[in-house]
Amino acid sequence: MIGHCYKRSKMSSLLNEVYVATCDMEIYNYIESIGGKAIITADTHERASDRTAEALLKIEKSTGKKVDIVVMIQGDEPMITPEMIQAAVHPLIDSKEIKISNLYTNIKTVKEFEDPNEVKVVINKNEFAIYFSREPIPSRKKGVLEVPMYKQVCIIPFKRDFLLEYNNMKQTPLEKIESVDMMRIIENGLQVKMIYTDDESYSVDTLEDLEVVVKKITNDTLLKKYL
After folding, report:
1. What angle do CA 203, 23, 201 make, to 5 degrees?
2. pLDDT by residue, tens only, the chain of 227 residues
3. Domain 2-200 indexed as CATH 3.40.50.720
4. Do residues 99 and 162 touch, judged by C-beta distance below 8 A?
5. Would strands 101-106 and 193-196 be described as parallel, antiparallel, or unpaired?
6. Least crowded by CB within 10 Å, which of 101, 144, 149, 160?
């Protein structure tokens, strides 16, 4: 799964380089074995963003180069596309004000909407996030069944300095309750830009998810380009 994420991320022309940040030697050795680059990080991180910040500083130290934008790509989304990465990154290139963005897409079933493994998001009219939750939001319990059902897709670009600023912020109450990194930003009064994608993406959190992705990826058009 991580190999798929790595290979597909490498296909993005916007990224200068791709690294896998991990505290696991098995993953590190695997990435090295396929010719990839991996960074060993601490095993105490509670958030992917914290691990990304550590990896960033280690990469900059080893290369002697300071980056502009860091794209955090979760290793459990093996069907991401280069186009999704491009869509997520461009708002940060085009605007000095936007420091972080997230992709989001439609949730297609009530079952998925109610799945706590999927991070749901409510968005304002300017496409900034209002709230993230593992609960089904907005509520369908008041008799309104046709509600906007959106989920976060975990391709998350940060402006370099903002990632470090974020990493120095204390964890916030709602971040801990929801177990969603982005709540730290919202609770501190800052904005998360949301970018819609209609590309299909599937996070693998359960064996059932894995079975779905194995079937879907078999006929995926990108697969032939890197296998």
Report:
1. 10
2. 999 999 999 999 999 999 999 999 999 999 999 999 999 999 998 888 889 999 999 999 999 999 999 999 988 889 999 999 999 999 999 999 999 999 999 998 999 999 998 999 999 999 999 999 999 999 988 777 789 999 999 899 999 999 999 999 999 999 999 999 999 999 999 999 999 999 877 888 889 889 989 998 988 989 989 88
3. no
4. yes
5. parallel
6. 144
What the block records as the tokens of 14 is 């916007």
For the chain, the 3-state helix, strand and coil shares in percent, each to the nearest 5, are 40, 20, 40
Question: In the structure encoding, which two tokens stand for residue 95, read together?
Answer: 């605007």
The DSSP string of 67-93 is -SEEEEE-TT-TT--HHHHHHHHHHHH
Distance, CA of 119 to CA of 134 (rounded, Å): 5
Cβ within 8 Å of residue 22, ≥6 positions away: 28, 31, 38, 39, 40, 41
Contact 108, 148 (CB under 8 A): no
Residues in the chain, how many?
Answer: 227
| Sequence-ordered alpha helix ranges (H) in the chain | 2-10, 25-33, 48-63, 82-94, 110-113, 160-168, 173-178, 182-187, 207-218, 223-226
Q: Which two three-digit tokens encode residue 63?
A: 């290369």
